[in-house]
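QA checklist item 7 of 12: single-chain prediction sanity check.
[x] sequence parsed
[x] length recorded as 396
[x] structure emitted
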Amino acid sequence: MEIHVEKSKISADLRTSRGNFDQIPFDLIPEVFKGLPVKALARFLCVSKECESIIRNRDFMKSYLVKSSSSRPRSLVFTLKDTKLRTWKHFFFSVSQPQNRGASSSSSFVATYHMNCHSQPYTTYSASVHGLICHGHPSKLMVYNPSTRGSITLPRIDSERVDMHHFLGYDPVSGDYKVLCFTPDDAFAFGQSFRVLTLGKENSWRIVQDYPLHFLDHPYSPDICIDGVLYYGVCLDNEETHAVMCFDVRSEKFDLIKLPDITSRISCLRLTSYEGTLAVLFTGDSRGRFNLWVLKDAVKHEWSKNEYVLPPSDGETYDHFRPFCVANGGEVVLAPLFVFCKEPYSVIYYNIKKNAVRRVYIEGIFTELKEPLWDKDSYHCTFSVFPAQIDNLMFL
């Protein structure tokens, strides 16, 4: 049964004194807490041991995530890469994901800066998976929670390789987050090893023994986690054979889905989710054009192809925009490939069913960072965009 309580009144009561807190029925408190933002719950950790035990309870965290996924607005998480610095520095931002306001509308939102990290040229996209982000140098992998601004450093992997790839997956049944790490053992990546670590349960990496031979097409390998299955792009026996590797987060089993016959490097492909199903965005070289391949049958490796051309809008050109993902409302999010500090940053939402576009301006990106973190004279590029960032209660 859904319980509706005025949040401001409850918050005030809980902050007044321990006596007032004790007057609230204990079985009602978890329901009240589910309706509060993460920042408020972080403060309630200090109210009493009872509050802390409720908030840190594993079942409560899981139910809080479920409610966040269904009822709370989601954010757009994107990273910009500094192309001038040899360190391949990545800057992480988030912004409230605007609701669909129909055709030919525009709006503006203020971005929140989270962090920057140094990354090697061979790296993955640092996908936002159910509220958490795994990022960093291969020798110092970290998991970051944008909701709490907390992070943890994962155990170091004993490897001399710099082109180590990592993927974060989430199992909605058990509520476990797992990090899958791929390490090629030679220059051609035919000798390889896989390791897995479960967040909060393990302090060391486990070796995965059973997996099909595959390698990643450097320097990119798009990945996404959908309903407990981690997907990432791979190449097989040669660079012309593209496929999607599937990793079941709970069983830790691998499977393979062949991609349609697309004559392009995997770096031109973006894995995304369309109406809850795995899909692939193919950018190609045409301006304002893209293909969306939607998986129909994983066993038979069947995909459906749809071609789209963005309609003109007030003389708008899309020469520098590329599709990155599909938002929850079914809109394709396009972001500028190159970013200049002197120009406003914006993204385009394309409604497939209505054939309509709208622009969203994102403010605060170039004012948040100061030199030398942010070189105002160099240009940057959009490295990744993920639309499903949710409130996560995990205090890392």
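[x] summary fact logged: Helices lie at 7-16, 18-22, 29-34, 38-44, 49-55, 58-71, 365-368.
[ ] second reviewer sign-off
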